[in-house]
Amino acid sequence: MEGRSRSPEEVEQRLRQIVQVLKCDVTLENPFHPLPMEPADCITCSLCLEEACEDEEEYDRAVGSIAALLKPGGSLVLTDILNQSCGIMGEQTFGCLALTQSQVEETLKGHGFSIKEFDTQPATEFEKKYIDGDPFFYLVAQKTE
Ligand SMILES: C[S@@+](CC[C@H](N)C(=O)[O-])C[C@H]1O[C@@H](n2cnc3c(N)ncnc32)[C@H](O)[C@@H]1O
């Protein structure tokens, strides 16, 4: 999406406002281990959870770990691809956990999220050269508990 709406200078200026970059592993109970993390107002995660998790149990635990990093009332913004089992990046093929919309929604609800928006967008023919899943999804969920 970068480049469609902002100039390189604007992107550079925004990136320079980032105050800290931390290593994260969503499969850990504390994804920022060993650092303690204050609960956040908003977390965004793009094309990562299905790529990082081997099976539904691990996905469920990862969503729980992310929920624990949010304040009650906080927002989770997720972007990923439904029904995707593999993708290609450069010369590398990587595996993904193929999930349906209802599996994603039920997992989030199971961790106290209320789904506020769930939009999908079909993959383009160009994108289908690199992914076997379809469609892309964009969701906003609010932590209610
Ligand atoms: C398909 S790339 C997406 C990159 C970028 N977030 C985006 O939206 O374009 C998948 C990303 O998942 C990250 N990833 C894989 N396993 C992870 C894990 N256990 N915890 C956190 N991130 C992980 C990889 O480092 C990689 O950056």
From TrEMBL:
One GO cellular component this record assigns the protein to is: cytosol
A Pfam cross-reference name:
NNMT_PNMT_TEMT
User: What Gene Ontology terms for biological process does this UniProt record contain?
Assistant: methylation
Query: What keywords were assigned to this record?
Result: Methyltransferase, S-adenosyl-L-methionine, Transferase
Highest taxon above the source species: Eukaryota
Record flagged with keyword Lipid metabolism: no
A molecular function annotated in GO for this UniProt entry is: N-methyltransferase activity
Q: Which SUPFAM superfamilies match?
A: S-adenosyl-L-methionine-dependent methyltransferases
Record bears the keyword Chaperone:
no
Xref: InterPro entries:
NNMT_TEMT_trans, SAM-dependent_MTases_sf
Q: Which family does it belong to?
A: Belongs to the class I-like SAM-binding methyltransferase superfamily. NNMT/PNMT/TEMT family.
Q: Which PANTHER family match?
A: NICOTINAMIDE N-METHYLTRANSFERASE, NNMT/PNMT/TEMT FAMILY MEMBER
Q: What is this protein called?
A: Uncharacterized protein
